[in-house]
């Protein structure tokens, strides 16, 4: 298998993702990637649209979510079967019931309790090494560390630091594109979303604006150039895609479709 993009977010990550799930899938297919995972923040909301588009095009699709915890720690989670998907869904429900609408309150202990038989990729956190050690103790070889580019000129140093940390805790790294848009043309929209999120104007956005349009779906050639010092991290994207089974996808999709239908019926009754 070729490079699989494991870290893309869609417009279901409100005021951050600048492309629809279908657009991300279409672009990944056009660039002949080995697969795509749309990992929106604390939700599975986009999996129906993403899977439907991927199935139509023949692109391998991985179910995923980005777990953002109470302390700011971020972890990507990929369920490997129906049970794991159900457990992650319960985890997200737990986090959303604890707080106000639109937010999710989760801890590392929650993840350890509910993420059995998932593949996890640690992204960042205030006590990151301790978090990785705890995840490794709980899930062993199903845990990786993400090499996450910010495209700000500091990525080589950032990758080296992350690789050193991964070596220290005894985990392997994996290459991630950190995608928020399917093509460079969405840069202006991404900045508008940032303005709304930050409650400011374009003129006042300053360094909070994206430095460039690099957070787009990239070809394997671009990825291999970006991570040229870490070929093993690129190879691990295929390993994860193979381990994250897709045979149960119809089950997950049916659950999401039933939820969408129930919501539509409820809103129709209210109106």
How do the helices and strands line up, and which of them pair or pack?
Layout lengths: L3 E5 L12 H10 L4 E7 L5 H11 L3 E8 L5 E6 L2 H16 L10 H7 L3 E7 L3 H12 L3 E5 L7 H15 L2 E4 L11 H12 L3 H4 L14 H7 L4 H13 L5 H22 L1
Parallel strand pairs: 1-2, 2-3, 5-6, 6-7
Antiparallel strand pairs: 3-4, 4-5
Task: Explain the overall architecture.
The protein is an alpha/beta fold and 271 residues long. It has one domain: TIM Barrel (Alpha-Beta Barrel). 48% of the residues lie in helices and 15% in strands. The protein has a seven-stranded mixed beta sheet with strand order 1-2-3-4-5-6-7, with helices on both faces.
What is the top-level CATH class?
A: Alpha Beta
Tell me which CATH architecture applies here: Alpha-Beta Barrel
The number of helical runs is: 11
Number of domains: 1
Key features?
TIM Barrel; alpha/beta; 271 residues
Quickly describe the structure.
The protein is an alpha/beta fold and 271 residues long.
